[in-house]
Amino acid sequence: MKKTVLVSGGAGFIGSHVSVELAQAGYDVLIADNMSNCDETNYNGVCKILGYAPEFVKMDFCDSEAVDRLFAGHKIDAVIHFAAYKAVGESVAQPLMYYRNNLLSFMNVIEAARKNGGCNVLFSSSATVYGEAEDLPVTEKTGRKPSTSPYGNTKQISEDILRDCVKAYPEIKGIALRYFNPIGAHPSALIGELPRGVPNNLVPFITQTAIGKRECLSIFGKDYPTEDGTCLRDYIDVVDLAKAHVCAVTRMIEGKMKADYEIYNIGTGRPVSVLELVNSFEKVNSLKLNYKFVDRRPGDVVSIYGSPALANEELGWKAERSVEETLAAAWAWEKALAGKN
Ligand code: UD1
User: Fold this and answer.
1) 3-state DSSP assignment of residue 106
2) For 276-303, what is each residue's pLDDT tens digit?
3) How far is the CA of 14 from the centre of ligand 1 (A)?
């Protein structure tokens, strides 16, 4: 009997890649999304890659009755919860919108899972919970720092909700995956990142500049205490990241967890500066990018990268793609979007 995995926010950037990897690993995937921050492109891409259409439900996870109906109507073995807002700046301007959406939706998922016989719950967290860490690379034992944005705070609170719920409700098991900086696209160029409006994140800004949608990339800060003066991050390929979810879900479903709640860093352990990333993009794709240095962006940490040792050991997962391969995939996706491939 195939096991069923519900992917909330499954039509988004990471959710669509995870849906593909789950289906290819032999799971039945149930995709649910309210489409508030995406269109049908990625879901259609998922269907093309798989050669069939996984079940899709358009619904809002803040609607507790709808979430309950979804769980009551399917035998769900695990849920991966992505459905959340994710723009740092917007969260500072509209904190209530972020707290309401990100926390309520997650509580509704856990509540519905409980009511319907229990479930394995995988939460999509972020390395933002570490803030500006003193010792790098960070491990799962590194303490969390008070969040500098409501967005980051919703990640911390959601982790706490899951931790507390697995303690109180034996029918719930939980894993939180703390992602570093997910970038890239599927090698088919059929799914990828589709930011609405001006991208906040580095790689979509780079690809949009290269294709001519944006005039010039602004590199935020050149006087950071790093070798080349730009910030260091741990860029993780989105397909590698998606595979980590398959490993984590399988660990839960097969009952191999060592505790009822586990946390894993999902990164490469390899720090890359903004300038290095830009140079690699230019080199691997044989093009020149228009960029300039501007002031630092408020709220940015200087350096954050994580040790993936625990995920390597316990999940049997390892990041495989090089930054160059990932940047080539991101560029292929941008060109496919522009119909230039
Ligand atoms: C940010 C959030 C992180 C969130 C992630 C989601 C913070 C501090 N960061 O990560 O919590 O999980 O997005 O995708 O809350 N940069 C430029 N020019 C640009 C854009 C970015 O120079 O136009 C630089 C930034 O200063 C940074 C690096 O590129 O040094 C990466 O930025 P970005 O892609 O936005 O990711 P983070 O800020 O690391």
Assistant:
1) helix
2) 999 999 999 999 999 999 999 998 999 9
3) 16
Contact 129, 146 (CB under 8 A): no
Tell me, using a 6 A CB cutoff, whether residue 209 lines ligand 1.
no
Question: Which residue has tokens 């050991």?
Answer: 313
Q: Does residue 218 line the site of ligand 1, with CB under 6 A? A: yes
Q: Is the peptide bond before 308 cis (omega within 30 degrees of 0)?
A: no
Say if residue 341's pLDDT is above 70.
no
pTM: 0.97
DSSP per-residue string spanning 45-87 = HHHHHHTS--EEEE--TT-HHHHHHHHHHS--SEEEE--S---
The pLDDT score that the predictor gives to residue 340 is 57
Please give the C-alpha separations between residue 179 and each of 53, 119, 236, 242, 329, in angstroms, as whole numbers.
28, 22, 8, 11, 19
Q: Does residue 204 line the site of ligand 1, with CB under 6 A?
A: no
Q: How far is the CA of 238 from the centre of ligand 1 (A)?
A: 16
- Is the C-beta atom of 149 inside 6 A of ligand 1? yes
Helices of type H across the chain: 13-24, 41-50, 64-73, 88-93, 95-115, 150-168, 202-211, 238-253, 274-284, 309-310, 323-337
Return d(Cα 255, Cα 238) in angstroms, integer. 26
24-67: per-residue pLDDT in tens? 999 999 999 999 999 999 999 999 999 999 999 999 999 999 99
The answer to whether residue 130 is catalytic is: no
User: Packing angle between helix 274-284 and helix 202-211, nearest 10 degrees?
Assistant: 40
Question: How is residue 306 annotated by DSSP?
Answer: B
Query: Letter for the amino acid at 285?
Result: N
Mean pLDDT across 163-185: 98
Q: Which of 240, 318, 251, 323 is nearest to 283 (CA)?
A: 323
